[in-house]
Amino acid sequence: MSHVVVVGASVGGVTCVQSLRELGFDGDITLLDAEYGPPYQRPPLSKEVLLGGDADDADLLDESALEAIGVEFRPGTPAIGLDVAGRRVRLAHGDLRFDELVLATGGAAAVPAPLTNLIGRGAHVLRTRTDAIALAAALGPDSGLAVLGGGVLGSEIASAAVSRGVPTTLLARPAQTLGPLRGALARPLLPLHRSRGVDVQTDRTRISHGAGRWRIDAGAARLVADVLVVAVGVRAAARWLARSLPVGPDGVRCDWRGRVAPGVWAVGDIADRAGSRHDVSYNTQAAAVVQAREVAGAIAGDPLRVPVVPYFWSDLHGVRVQAAGRIPPDARIEPLDRDDTGAPHVFAVVDDDGTVVGAAAWGSARGFRRARTMLGTALDQEAAAR
Amino acid sequence: MVEVVVDSAACVGAGQCALTAPQVFDQDDDGIVVLLAGVVTDVSAVRQAAQLCPARAITVIG
Questions:
Q1: pLDDT at A312
Q2: Options 3.50.50.60, 3.20.20.70, 3.20.20.370, 3.50.30.10; CATH of A3-108+235-300
Q3: Domain 4Fe-4S ferredoxin-type spans what residues (chain B) (predicted)?
Q4: CATH number at B2-61
Q5: For labeling, which of A146, A216, A228, A345 is most exposed (least CB within 10 Å)?
């Protein structure tokens, strides 16, 4: 009997075990997770949960649903090592043998060395459900919040906080990026934050802590905050694999199907997958879900047969930001539509050959769908100018 | 025959379901999923749509 071990009850891990069963895989399945409690997804943590919603809303399914499909779920069981040739995962108490292993441990909040002392003094990070509950509890209208990092996570935290009436400062870089969006595609970001009352500072900052508060020097501005969140990125949680597999700064290197080595696969943020770097979904839940389905299909012998368009989304101040397809570094950005203020907010991403390879929109579902239908076609200059 | 349930509050407007199983899923003007048929016979396409939904907003029962 074949045994599949999935490490990480992330959205990738859970999608993988569910898909395996739906595709008819009838061997044993073990799902390991370092955390306790039912599996959950991360996107709601920086949205609904910070807005004061129930943290259970982030749950993917309850443990009985895993039992019902014959998956042995072992929460509180981190994998600590791997013997690829011997096909064994090392646990705190003994080894677990596998025929196929799926790595789905995701990432951890990146805290560069100069910032680690901030965490020691009580700064928050936001990656796990526990982190989100702690941060949600710390937010209130009487305590000022400073968010270090203006990417997707920092921007979503700032958005949720101001909507709860929390005085919020966002410490961001002047050249904005929002996930895969950069340059002209990210230009709506800072004006949006400022229009909703976020104090955005883009000067170089110095942060110190004293008397229970954070003191922030940002250029000429002198600020004080009660709560500080460090949201400067995510690193692949792959150190435990470094002695067993090819691990780089972006995770475990795998081929375009997610295969790392014979019997070993990787999905989601831990996977440094060939050819995916410029997909708008790179290192997002959307990619983890699709990769999990692909790997389940490869293991079960039933590959995915439908085309998948890479997708990215974020929700900021009630504005849905969407992107689809790919954004190569040298692509041309063509505005397709403008908002009420005249600023471009729907875009086509065009490659060297004049083919539309990506689409993006800020707060325009209709514009986004129109741009997305252009994917794979030559850019219609008349349509672009409209 | 299986039953399909969508959580339109959780839908993030990716539109992957409408690409995967266009007989069953569509999108409204806001890009949010619209269920065209609650009970379906092409189970494989619907299951793939549920598996590929980036917001995990589709449940297939049965």
A1: 98
A2: 3.50.50.60
A3: 2-30
A4: 3.30.70.20
A5: A216
